[in-house]
Amino acid sequence: MVRVLVTGGAGFIGSATCRHLVAAGDEVLNLDKLTYAGNLASLRAVEGAPRYRFAKVDICDRAAVEEAFASFQPDRVIHLAAESHVDRSIGAAGAFIDTNIVGTFVMLEAARQHWSCLPAGRQEAFRFLHVSTDEVYGSLGEDGLFTEETAYDPSSPYSASKAAADHLVAAWARTYGFPGLISNCSNNYGPFHFPEKLIPLVILNALHGKPLPVYGKGENVRDWLYVEDHARALALIAARGRIGEKYNVGGRNERRNIDVVRTICGLLDRLRPRAVPHEELITFVTDRPGHDHRYAIDASKLETELGWQAMETFDTGIEKTVRWYLDNEWWWRPLRDKVYAGERLGLLAAAGA
Fold this sequence. Notes:
By secondary structure, the protein is α/β, with parallel strands linked by helices. About 40% of the residues lie in helices and about 15% in strands. The protein is globular.
């Protein structure tokens, strides 16, 4: 049994990772501040498991983080805690700087202190996986893929903060010999996804007969990764990845945003029909400032070196996702009613508010 400390484990990717690790037989400590996007209901499947525990901790709180390391004595860290929504970063960048940069520094220092005191065998086996995003690479043209060697060119406050955190991890590995690794993933989707993001927002707005907002002309392209495929990848990288390396994680499922929305509309026409097609709810809105045109991941290194493969295509994954939201109103209804009702975020006017 391996002890894995997961930060941000009440979030979307974090909760999927905790569920996967517990099911695989690992012992998990989940540290989460429980911001608006943290939801313990996403962990209902494991909350009573003897190998799972939760602690409400802000990763910027050095004393609390050090106490978690001292009491849990982890063998691995999967660091997911982050402010992650581009639109929110445009209007309120401060939280992204604090959590994504300062919080990562605190995690690195606490982990380095813990690692340096481990006996030789455990020290050699210890790993710290920092989970990042393909958005640090900026925007692609019509061709090409992001590789682990692609130069960083972040466009938003969110991606800039994640790029800074990546550089901290790489520097700690080089300077201190610290066993850090980095993963950069494409856009995730699936169950338990907070409804500010494109896919759950479109599903829930469509169910309520509300407009389906599409930025610009909907021609921006994203590479979609089913969240449970990502959780498997993170567990594998943390267990077998090479120290100091980066691993890109992508589903090889490029889609224009407008095509994603139309696919969801078609599924809902079949699974939850209404008087008129759901596609008639599509509304084109002013584009996001600094909106990257295209992301696409080359996951060859992860596939060939560690043997990972995505199990879901976009077609299979999106139908599973739509069906999950139809069947699990208990999870999303409180969020829509009390936390986020689908309003537009990220308008530049908010910066001066």
